[in-house]
Design goal:
The complex is a heterodimer of chains A (310) and B (465). Chain A has 310 residues and is α+β, with helices and mostly antiparallel strands. Chain A is 17% helix and 34% strand. Classes of the chains: A alpha+beta (310), B mainly beta (465).
Chain lengths: 310, 465
């Protein structure tokens, strides 16, 4: 449960949501077949760095995300406000977040204290940062594809998972810039087999979740008033792991949260996006138990457990 | 054909080449000259003792140091192409050490890598031949496992000049400028931080930098030049982490040589960037007026991640003063427009391409393991390596044993071939080079030359067989 200490952050999120361009509202029905490999952007994660192009075209981009590390990783893509740089992001956002995390880890503050501390160190321009998605949690050795519509601008790519010792990945090197240029991509969204709609506080899943390769469309209908928003990550569960285990582990402000090793095998997803956005990811479903879960709102019920029959 | 056998341009038509020429003067700025046991022969036999010492590095204050032959920096080693070099090394330090002959193309057993430590109280004789065509400026320093930064920081480093008996440059006054930096406590002791402190954390991130910059053993020395004179400056970056962006007030510089010696066409530059481990040869032309002065400065250079950037990073630092004598100007000599032809290694010969990814403290996702070979190549093979820096600070990349030619940096072709053994990768930058693994099989290190990063494990092993 997100504490009241996030009030400042909630205010920041609201301002972010209100600044959305109308063009971000893409309907499911406008999905079309993407040409093979058209505008495929290769991003590779290692422990602990991203390999990615310095520039990509704006519009629809399919990201092929390969995790060549030994720890789970994801890519959160954030568009910087005009005039801000990677340097500013690292100094004024990454470092303060890390200081709060270290204070929490070292027992200098409790959870409530961490949120209050965060409210005091986040810069005034934070609300003007736009989370634009990115491939969700991916297990080591896996490769996933996810498709996003990106507006021109300067972006920061980051992973904020943690090592076994609790070091945050962006402090270890998983933070890099990328520019989305004015040139238009020739990409298009793929055709979806399954449609996920995220709202307050529900994950509506429509479509057949059978074995085989499935393309998921994720639409953010609403974002919550409190917290960082909805996203979707797909995890394959073993017989012992419960949805609760995953939700607990995904709680970044839990001192054991988001630390290697993950309690399940993650197969990708879609990271935080503005209201009205739709993005896509593809996963190969084999027989077994799965969980679709929102990192920040899974504990409020924004999740969906399902089984793929043999 | 060994890569060192290079064609010589028609320099003979442009300048007088005199065999066995010595420079009219050579200023080493505190470096003693290593004494050859048998001078005059084509065999150079010298002795180096690595030992603790108590020396006055700062005026009026003594420091406990590690020193070669009682001197910091160590003595200057001068040899000629084709010489056979025998170096008797004795380790009187309280810990194991090696001596790595940085940039020289020599057998693996003589490389001075962590594979061949000299234990305390032990001795080792390095013996190798100086290849023809290798004339240039090199340096030597310890390379023990996990202790390079400490031992270099304590004072173990020195310079090497390999002379060309047919030097295309006319005899010029030379300055050997070994740049280093260090940090001291109030009592004069060399300052290494306590583990777990903020300073230690920053040293791990950035590499240890010192606030005192030395030229040889001197601080802010004054060099003399006569108006119209041309001098040859051989500059070595022996710092453990600091990158120097060098510029001389009111003067352009003629860049004539890199890590592997002279290249074909001198290049006029206003400033030059020298990363850790790199060397540069510059011609300094006395274009000032008699009695005037100019300062060589290290201009601000941002090699840091935002979170590690020191407050003082953008303050220029004075390195030395160039003072013009009152003597009337001399007639400037002609500098050849073509120095030494360097044949580009044919790209068509490259049968393998490798990608080397630099991360913070890792290469290709791994930290150094002495028991693990990371890359394998065939003796005699030509390869193209693409080195990419995936993180937000500079990492200078060094390959042992083989000089290479940088093809391009961030996709921009290099203007001419030159021999290098170290290439700087700025934040998120990339560079491609071509290399031929001639003559010597063995396990060759490649690593970031920020010594603290090397010690942390940002190093890998290439096996050539």
């Amino acid at each position: 449960m997100l504490a009241s200490g996030l009030r400042l952050v909630r205010y920041c999120i609201l301002l972010t949501l209100l600044s959305l361009p109308v063009s971000m509202r893409a309907a499911f029905s406008q999905a079309a077949d993407a040409p093979p490999d058209a505008d495929v952007v290769e991003i590779t994660a290692t422990d602990y760095a991203f390999r990615a192009p310095s520039e990509i075209a704006s519009g629809w981009n399919t990201i092929r995300f390969s995790n060549e590390g030994e720890e789970p990783h994801f890519v959160l893509m954030s568009r910087l406000p005009e005039g801000k740089t990677l340097d500013d992001y690292e100094t004024e956002i990454s470092q303060p977040f890390n200081e709060v995390w270290m204070a929490l880890l070292e027992g200098k503050v409790d959870r409530q204290g961490a949120f209050e501390m965060l409210g005091g160190v986040i810069p005034e321009w934070y609300p003007t940062l736009t989370f634009m998605g990115g491939p969700g949690y991916v297990a080591p050795g896996r490769e996933v594809q996810a498709t996003f519509r990106l507006e021109p601008g300067d972006y920061v790519l980051e992973c904020y998972m943690k090592t076994e010792d609790g070091a945050v990945h962006f402090m270890e090197g998983m933070l890099r810039p990328m520019t989305v240029t004015d040139a238009a991509s020739s990409g298009a969204p793929p055709k979806a087999d399954v449609r996920i709609t995220l709202s307050n506080f529900e994950m509506q899943v429509d479509g057949a979740l059978g074995a085989g390769e499935r393309t998921f469309a994720v639409h953010v209908e609403e974002n919550p008033e409190a917290g960082f928003g909805h996203n979707v990550h797909l995890a394959r569960l073993d017989d012992e792991t419960t949805s609760d285990d995953i939700v607990q582990w995904m709680d970044w402000f839990n001192t054991e949260g988001a630390r290697t090793p993950a309690p399940a095998e993650f197969l990708g997803g879609v990271h935080l996006m503005p209201v009205g956005s739709t993005a896509y990811f593809t996963a190969d479903l084999k027989p077994g138990r799965y969980l679709l879960v929102s990192e920040y709102t899974g504990h409020r019920g924004v999740l969906h457990e399902f089984t793929v029959a043999p | 054909m060994a890569f060192w056998t290079l064609g010589i341009a028609d320099v003979a038509a442009q300048s007088a080449i005199v065999e066995g020429r010595e420079p009219p003067s050579i200023h080493t700025h505190g470096l003693p000259r290593l004494e050859d046991r048998a001078p005059g022969a084509a065999i150079v036999e010298v002795d180096l003792v690595a030992a603790t010492a108590h020396l006055e590095l700062l005026p009026g204050r003594s420091s406990d140091v590690f020193a070669y032959n009682g001197s910091v920096p160590g003595p200057l080693l001068e040899v000629t192409e084709g010489d056979s070099l025998i170096i008797h090394v004795r380790n009187d330090l309280p810990e194991a050490t090696t001596i790595h002959w940085h940039g020289l193309h020599i057998p693996f057993v003589a490389d001075g890598s962590p594979f061949h430590p000299i234990e305390p109280g032990g001795s080792f004789t390095y013996a190798f031949r100086i290849p023809t065509g290798s004339a240039g400026t090199y340096w030597y320093h310890p390379h023990p496992d996990h202790r390079a930064a400490y031992q270099v920081g304590m004072g173990l480093f020195g310079a090497i000049i390999v002379r060309d008996p047919n030097d295309p440059l006319p005899p010029l006054a030379e300055h050997v400028l070994v740049l280093s930096d260090n940090r001291f406590r109030d009592d004069g002791s060399i300052d290494f931080p306590e583990a777990g402190t903020r300073v230690a954390e920053m040293d791990e991130l950035n590499g240890r930098e010192g606030d005192v910059i030395f030229v040889g053993s001197e601080i802010l020395p004054t060099l003399s030049i006569r108006a119209g004179e041309v001098q040859r400056w051989r500059i070595v970056n022996a710092s453990g982490a600091r990158i120097y962006r060098l510029a001389l007030d009111g003067h352009s510089l003629l860049h004539v040589g890199s890590d592997g010696g002279l290249f074909e066409h001198p290049v006029e530059v206003d400033e030059i960037l020298l990363a850790n481990g790199e060397r540069v040869e510059l011609l300094v032309r006395g274009t000032g007026e008699p009695g005037s002065r100019a300062v060589l400065k290290a201009l601000p250079y941002d090699r840091y991640m935002a979170r590690g950037r020191p407050d003082s990073w953008n303050e220029p630092r004075e390195i030395l003063t160039l003072r013009y004598t009152d003597d009337p100007p001399v007639e400037p000599i002609d500098i050849p427009g073509v120095l030494r032809r360097i044949d580009a290694l044919p790209i068509a010969d490259a049968d393998t391409s490798r990608t080397i990814l630099l991360q913070q403290g890792r290469i290709n996702g791994k930290t150094m393991d002495m028991g693990r070979v990371d890359e394998q190549a065939s003796l005699g093979a030509t390869e193209i390596w693409e080195v990419e820096n995936l993180v937000g600070m500079d990492h200078p990349f060094h390959l042992h044993g083989f000089q290479f030619q940088v093809l391009d940096r961030n996709g921009i072709p290099e203007p001419q071939p030159m021999w290098k053994d170290t290439v700087n990768l700025p934040a998120f930058g990339r560079a491609r080079f071509i290399v031929r693994f001639d003559d010597f099989a063995g396990k060759w290190m490649f690593h970031c030359h920020i010594l603290d990063h090397e010690d942390q494990g940002m190093m890998s092993i290439l096996q050539v067989e």
